[in-house]
Structure formats: structure tokens, C-alpha cells
Specification:
mainly alpha
């Protein structure tokens, strides 16, 4: 077994993104292994899934300790995701593609990445509208998740879809789950979304890992090198995400997923670069427009609230030199002669 320093550094970067955003593990790790390190697609998927089994808990533990996990959501997500993830690992082996399995797997991965990229865009827009902020979300504070009315059937179906995608492509545990959770449960804070997603991903990835260990093409040396960097990266990223905003990083991740998805689908380099550049330019234009719009709205609301708050803060009835400020008068008022 050989330890590869570049793989360690790649795992460190991906682990940090996973801990920070709750997503991007398979969406970044698998394309990185295929394009940068020239790993066979099936080996990349199997090794990535097994690596996630040890990487996800590093971030999940941090969020559990900070109280940013909704265990009811985790339970119902796992009801659907665990059996589906194991089935996905078996399904990818039984697909009748023969020698063209690598090509088919790249197509499935590419479609999954494009879906994940679109999901991130939808999530960013919803966060901007909900928080009325161009950043999409503000700094988070330690707090227990709110009591939610959990919807078992939609939540379990979401888990099943994500589990199937993870078992087949290693993509979907965070990129899809966290977006749909935001749509189903808009009351959850950003930190709670990330924490809940990271915790539910642990049993999901465990089921997928078992399937890939039994029927996949797992590489021990490759996975070990990834984990040496990914575990501390996820731990550090989770500490940052439990305290700081991650909206801008998620939108940058969306562009990266778009480029990776197009490349996996066979797009030429000029098309990939053009699409990424267009997304970057249009995304910034939209961001500046939203910033100006919500900045003006916030300024108006502050201006409207100032007169109402003035009388409460302005000591009109207690000017300087009043009896309340005079120690002598104060002692006189509290003396027994009164």
C-alpha cells in the first residue's frame, strides 16, 4: 500500500468543503479522482464511497456536539436511504453495459452533478429570498433545532432517492438532500441543515460502502491516502460551518459542479470553460442586483424603525441635571424623612 501526497492534499480540500457545506463529497471527490488522478470510474466511485464512511462522521460529531442536528429528520431519511444505498451499489454492478460501463457511469455521474449544481442554485436563491440578504445566510449560533412537524413519507422518499444515487455514483448525499430539506423544512437554519445532512449521511454511506466492499472495485491504498487528508479537513470545515456563513462557497461549488458534470458528459474544454464563465458572470450580476435590492430594503426598514425606537432610547424625561442624576437628590428621596 502506497501513500500518495497529492491524494492526501486532494482529500484535505474535499474534506474541508464537505465539513463546511455538508455537500460536495462525491460531487468533488469522484471527478477529481477521474480527471486529475486518472482513476478508473468504478474504482473512483467505490473508493470515494468508502472514504466518505470515515470522513462524514468527523463533521457529524462536531454538529452533534453543537446541537445543530434534527434527529427525527435523520431517522426518516435513513428509513429510505439505507436500503436504497445498498441496492444502488448492487445495481451499478448489474447494469448490462459490458465494456461500455465506464462510459455509462460517466454519463450517470455527469447528470447527477448537473442536478446537484441546479439544486445548489435553487438553494442559494431560496436562502437569499428567505433571509433577504445577498449572502444567503448569516453567521450561525449554537442552538437546538426547532421542533418541526416531520413529514415521514416525503422525507423517506427523499432519503431513498439520495441513497440510490450515492450507491450508484457516490453523488447525492449532501448535494440533493440538503436542497430538498430546505424546500420541505424552510424553518431549519443553515447550520441545522448541514448538521442534519452530515449525520444522516453516515448510515447512508455505511450501507453503500458495504455494497461496494462486497461487489465494487475498492482500492485500499487510494482510500487510505484520501482519508489522511479528508478526515482533518472535514473536522475543520465543520467547525467553520457551525459558526460562519457558507452561502458564497456553495455558489462557487455550483459552478464547479456544472463544469465537472459537462466534462463527464463529454463536452469539449471550450464549452466547459464557456459555461463556467457564463455562470460566473451571470451569477455575480444576479448577486449584485440582489445585494442592491435587499440592501435598499434593509436601509428603508432601519429608517422606518428609527423614529419608533427613538423615544425609548432618548432620555427626554430624564435630562442632564435632573434629580435622577443628582446623588444628593437621590439620597434625599430615599431618606427616612420621606
Amino acid at each position: 500500500m502506497t501513500i500518495d501526497i497529492p491524494l492526501i492534499l486532494g482529500g484535505l480540500a474535499v474534506g474541508f468543503v464537505v465539513g463546511l457545506t455538508g455537500m460536495g463529497g462525491g460531487a468533488l471527490m469522484t471527478p477529481m479522482l477521474i480527471f486529475v488522478f486518472r482513476v478508473d470510474p468504478l474504482v473512483a466511485v467505490s473508493s470515494d464511497v468508502v472514504a466518505s464512511l470515515f470522513m462524514k462522521p468527523a463533521g457529524a460529531i462536531v454538529h452533534m456536539r453543537r446541537g445543530t442536528v434534527n434527529l427525527k429528520l435523520v431517522l426518516w431519511l435513513c428509513v429510505g436511504s439505507v436500503p436504497a444505498a445498498f441496492s444502488g451499489a448492487l445495481l451499478i454492478q448489474s447494469l448490462p453495459f459490458g465494456d461500455s460501463l465506464d462510459t455509462a457511469l460517466k454519463m450517470v455521474l455527469g447528470i447527477a452533478l448537473l442536478i446537484a449544481s441546479c439544486g445548489l442554485v435553487v438553494r442559494a436563491v431560496l436562502q437569499m429570498v428567505r433571509t433577504r440578504s445577498a449572502l444567503g445566510e448569516g453567521p450561525t449560533r449554537p442552538s437546538a433545532p426547532r421542533e418541526l412537524v416531520v413529514r415521514p413519507v416525503p422525507t423517506a422518499i427523499l432519503g431513498a432517492v439520495a441513497g440510490l444515487l450515492v450507491g450508484m455514483t457516490s453523488v447525492g448525499a449532501g448535494s440533493i438532500v440538503i436542497v430538498v430539506l430546505l424546500l420541505l423544512y424552510p424553518a431549519l437554519k443553515a447550520s441545522q441543515l448541514v448538521g442534519t445532512d452530515l449525520v444522516q449521511a453516515v448510515p447512508l454511506v455505511a450501507a453503500a460502502s458495504l455494497g461496494h466492499l462486497l461487489y465494487g472495485d475498492f482500492s485500499l491504498g487510494l482510500t487510505t491516502s484520501l482519508l489522511i487528508g479528508a478526515i482533518p479537513g472535514a473536522w475543520f470545515g465543520a467547525h467553520v460551518s457551525s459558526r460562519a456563513p457558507g452561502g458564497i462557497i456553495r455558489r462557487a461549488l455550483a459552478i464547479l459542479l456544472l463544469a465537472s458534470g459537462l466534462k463527464l458528459l463529454g463536452a469539449s474544454l471550450p464549452v466547459v470553460l464557456g459555461a463556467a464563465g457564463a455562470a460566473l458572470v451571470l451569477g455575480n450580476l444576479v448577486w449584485f442586483w440582489v445585494k442592491r435590492r435587499f440592501g435598499a430594503v434593509q436601509a428603508e426598514s432601519v429608517a422606518d424603525s428609527t423614529p419608533a425606537e427613538g423615544p425609548a432610547d432618548d432620555p427626554v424625561d430624564d435630562p442632564a441635571g435632573s434629580p435622577a442624576d443628582d446623588p444628593a437628590e437621590d439620597s434625599a428621596e430615599t431618606s427616612p424623612r420621606r
